[in-house]
Amino acid sequence: xxxxxxxxxxxxxxxxxxxxxxxxxxxxxxxxxxxxxxxxxxxxxxxxxxxxxxxxxxxxxxxxxxxxxxxxxxxxxxxxxxxxxxxxxxxxxxxxxxxxxxxxxxxxxxxxxxxxxxxxxxxxxxxxxxxxxxxxxxxxxxxxxxxxxxxxxxxxxxxxxxxxxxxxxxxxxxxxxxxxxxxxxxxxxxxxxxxxxxxxxxxxxxxxxxxxxxxx
Length: 216
Prior knowledge:
The chain is α/β, with parallel strands linked by helices.
């Protein structure tokens, strides 16, 4: 069953507002890579990492994962959220000041570019309790079974696409781009987590290394 327009808009708004990914998220699938521009001044030795998501916590988590992956490959990177808080304007001027402050020669910008959700009703598993009582007869027991069945729940499947670009500080031009998609399947009342971010960060750093944007 496809959710109604109002429910779908509400769900998409929720995801775009907080972008918290559930433990049921599938693996990251890279769908497009624009290889390094021949005119690029790569490899980059100092990189500012920026995640453009509406939730500050989500931005901080994704940036941290990317910085960690780049560090494992020997590249010095700094998360923008380590130099700002929720009140700092997310503007071009803010990030230019960060580039100057750390002496970055490259910038990574990762952002959500597509969200599509569908839903269906899912029957809940019944839960049961048993009460055992002895009777007057040898080895004969009385058993009471009580079964509880929740109403059907709403299962939401969400397809998301994230785009990541690398910019040269010297030219202020995009020199490399990748897109990756993943799917989240969850109950509407399920708790959320950031479980997909490590895979996303790993794909970004792996492909940057492969295409010569950073030193191995």
